[in-house]
Amino acid sequence: MLKPIRSRIGAFPGRRLTVVIAGVAILAVAGVTLAVGAAGGGSSVSTATGRRTVAFDPTYSPAASRIIVAGTLAASPTATASPAPTMTPIDVLLRPDHWVDQRRPSPAQSRSWLKDKAIGRVALVDGQTMILPASSDVLVNPTTHQAVPDKAVLDTTWTRWIIEVPGSGRDEKGNWFSDLSYWEFCGDGAMTVALSYWQQLTGHPDVTGTAGYFVDPYAAEGVAWPDSGPSIKWSNGDPIGTYWSGSDTVSGFTAHGRGFEMYLAMAAKPPTWQSTGYALFALDGKPLYPSFGTQPANTVAGLNWEASGHNPNNWGETYYAPVVPSDPTLASDLTAAVMLDVGRDGVPVVALADSFNLPNWQDGDSTPHIPHSIAIVGYDNTANPPTFTYTETCGRACNRRGGNQDGDIHVIPQSDLVLAIKNTAGSGFVW
User: What is the pTM of this model?
Assistant: First the structure.
């Protein structure tokens, strides 16, 4: 029987948490097509800082034909040009009530920026994030001047082996550990996948080189270490944690990005945050064990802060915005978002889905309903039915049935992934 290993991601009890009032407007209306050139919104450029050249892992190599490699987008043979610079806006203004982590406040995203985001004008071009001119056809790559293709997949030679740290075992230094919170870091794993493409395109963040000891941040949360908490390395009465780097062979294969995954979960700290890490380790002044994982708002904040290169100026509007499950045009919005992010800009979309609808989790009646984050790295609108391609950072631990392996790349009908986002444990997507 499949044992659910993630039961708390995205589940947040309501006591003493702040309620954000719902947005007042829905930009995307079914059946309405908005001319991109006529759209309102600002025209300022938000530029990523700290650009530098990074030597990526030597195992990374361009894939075969019909593969779009991050940074070298090219139309597939079946691509067709957009007949006009038009696009139905993606529904980023629909913001229902949701709970907010008071110690990790989400930065505001202005209505003007959200309008630009909704119609695809927020773009990653030649390593810079910017607002495309109002006259631009957002369905054409601004660098290659080729139409966004009808099918594309990013090179996953390296990213398919971004597999989360298991809940027990030995770290890279040989220290034994047992930490149930590690099973809750799928949000950080999916962000690691997404941000590794940003490293290739912009020079940051340092997904391939982040290394060190990482410890559950109860001290940073201002709470006591939990009774019967994780078993990790201690020294002189203080928890040291576990050691991880850019690549390791601890699990019997070469896993990538575990140091960065743990940094995201436990050590990252955007401006104005009182606590470290995008995962939630305390609530109501009391420690949580295991962690509640990374909630959707922190996924948005984490992607933007890290993609910005830790630029403190307006980092909340770097690139990413959320779309919620109640979006009435979710199916078309998800397809459009994946085409823009993957097919035009060369970076993944992060989906916050119900594990029940994901093929690598399915195990008959034992398939769980667990909030789970995945990185969408490809799409094929010409397939019958149309499909998305995603990576799975929990690897074979999701379901140890025969044929389900670490490093697998999964293909799912687009309609099934929409169901996963709308289902009980789904939370939307971030693009």
Answer: 0.84
DSSP labels, 375-405: EEEEEETTSSS-EEEEE-TTGGGG--STT--
Nearest CA among 334, 350, 424 for reference residue 387: 334
> Alpha carbon 118 to chain centroid distance?
18
| Amino acid at site 225 | W
Q: What six digits make up the tokens of 364?
A: 């008959």
Report which of 58, 61, 377 is spatially closest to residue 247, judged by C-alpha positions. 58
Cα–Cα nearest to 373, from 352, 389, 359: 352
- Residue with tokens 């995603």, as numbered in its chain: 390
Please check whether residue 262 is in contact with residue 214, taking contact to mean a CB–CB distance below 8 angstroms: yes
The sign of the dihedral angle between the CA atoms of 303, 308, 314, 317 is negative
Which residues partner with 427 through β-bridges?
Answer: none
The per-type count for the chain, helices as H runs and strands as E runs, is 7, 22
Which tens digits make up the pLDDT trace of 106-152? 999 999 999 999 999 999 999 999 999 999 999 999 999 999 999 99
CB 350 within 8 A of CB 190: yes
